[in-house]
């Protein structure tokens, strides 16, 4: 099946964080592709990727980067697809640099930013975006949420056993 979600990152060093996005997509059987696309080391590749993404059938792009994390915003500027940004924490500043770089987009070019290292939620948000026009996927998201609720209630009950 053609990929519906593109998971991209500025460096292969981002993969330990970003793999949680891919895992969430796999859990929901959403076809996806994974690429390293650097805004500053491979700028032309980044522009080509963003401009061709919709035409290739992608519906959502998840972009992770650390430090001066301009990849999600730059990709969002060159595509009309929804872009979800994942701030990757590096050695210094606890990911605050990445978070602020990604979340502070000027009006006009939105990037839906998840928490620092929040790649799992990025994957789940991409699933929800797809589920907004896919009834069977929406039902699975609802079951996923119900399972989460049941798990918490079960743990709560076990506290009193
Ligand atoms: C960013 O620079 C990447 O997204 C990565 O988080 C960071 C460091 O990259 P490497 O020096 O590990 O390749 O562009």
Automatic annotation (TrEMBL):
- Which InterPro entries does the annotation name? PurE_ClassI, PurE_dom, PurE_prokaryotes
> Origin, by domain of life?
Bacteria
| Matches recorded under Pfam families | AIRC
Where is the chain membrane-spanning?
none
Q: Which SMART domains match?
A: AIRC
Annotated pathway, please? Purine metabolism; IMP biosynthesis via de novo pathway; 5-amino-1-(5-phospho-D-ribosyl)imidazole-4-carboxylate from 5-amino-1-(5-phospho-D-ribosyl)imidazole (N5-CAIR route): step 2/2
Residues involved in substrate binding:
11, 14, 41
Q: Alphabetically, which GO biological process terms does the record hold?
A: 'de novo' IMP biosynthetic process
Domain PurE per the UniProt entry, residue ranges: 3-152
Question: Recorded E.C. number(s)?
Answer: 5.4.99.18
User: Which keywords does the record carry?
Assistant: Isomerase, Purine biosynthesis
Name the catalysed reactions: 5-carboxyamino-1-(5-phospho-D-ribosyl)imidazole + H(+) = 5-amino-1-(5-phospho-D-ribosyl)imidazole-4-carboxylate
Task: Give GO terms: molecular function aspect only.
Answer: 5-(carboxyamino)imidazole ribonucleotide mutase activity
**Function, in words:** Catalyzes the conversion of N5-carboxyaminoimidazole ribonucleotide (N5-CAIR) to 4-carboxy-5-aminoimidazole ribonucleotide (CAIR).
The similarity annotation says: Belongs to the AIR carboxylase family. Class I subfamily.
| Name the record gives this protein | N5-carboxyaminoimidazole ribonucleotide mutase
Q: Coding gene?
A: purE
């Amino acid at each position: 099946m053609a990929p519906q979600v593109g998971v991209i990152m500025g460096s292969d060093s981002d993969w330990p964080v970003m793999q949680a996005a891919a895992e969430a997509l796999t859990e929901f059987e959403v076809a996806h592709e994974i690429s390293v696309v650097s805004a500053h080391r491979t700028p032309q590749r980044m522009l080509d990727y963003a401009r061709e993404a919709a035409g290739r059938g992608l519906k959502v792009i998840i972009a992770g980067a650390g430090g001066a994390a301009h990849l999600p915003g730059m990709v969002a500027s060159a595509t009309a697809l929804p872009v979800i940004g994942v701030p990757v924490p590096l050695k210094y500043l606890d990911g605050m640099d990445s978070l602020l770089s990604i979340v502070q987009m000027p009006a006009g070019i939105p990037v839906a930013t998840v928490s620092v290292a929040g790649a799992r939620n990025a994957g789940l948000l991409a699933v929800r975006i797809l589920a907004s026009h896919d009834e069977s996927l929406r039902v699975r998201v609802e079951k996923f949420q119900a399972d989460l609720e049941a798990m918490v209630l079960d743990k709560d009950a076990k506290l009193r056993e």
